[in-house]
Amino acid sequence: MASSRGGLSVESSSSSSPSLLRAPSRTVTLGRIQPQAPTYRTVFCNDRDANLPVRFKGNSISTTKYNVFTFLPKGLFEQFRRIANIYFLGISCLSMTPISPVNPITNVAPLTMVLLVSLIKEAFEDW
């Protein structure tokens, strides 16, 4: 029986023709896991138990800029890319000379506080 709707024809048959029969599968099923050929791999979506024996590589993505070992060097490098921090570091170094009329703590303390607050902010944002 054939019907036509909007230019589409749909055929339905009560008896199944030989061309519509599925050929028997030659894959061996071991529970829910099928053996895999070396040229391809099968990944079962949302099924950790089926993917566990195959041991696929993880696909986690890390967008952090720092880790425990590189936080201080990279963080200080990022802070001293700003020209103002380099300027105040130079002034602090000059204030440590014996010919300086001011106490070095008056220049080192503000620079240290600015760097400390900036590094804490960077650590919080990266975490």
From TrEMBL:
It is found in: Endomembrane system. PANTHER family: PHOSPHOLIPID-TRANSPORTING ATPASE DNF1-RELATED, PROBABLE PHOSPHOLIPID-TRANSPORTING ATPASE. GO terms for cellular component: Golgi membrane; plasma membrane; trans-Golgi network. GO terms for molecular function: ATPase-coupled intramembrane lipid transporter activity. The keyword Transport applies. Residues 1-24 are annotated as: Disordered. GO terms for biological process: Golgi vesicle budding; phospholipid translocation. Residues 43-107 form the P-type ATPase N-terminal domain. It comes from Brassica carinata. InterPro entries: ATPase_P-typ_TM_dom_sf (IPR023298), P-type_ATPase_N (IPR032631). Keywords: Transport. The keyword Transport applies. This is P-type ATPase N-terminal domain-containing protein.
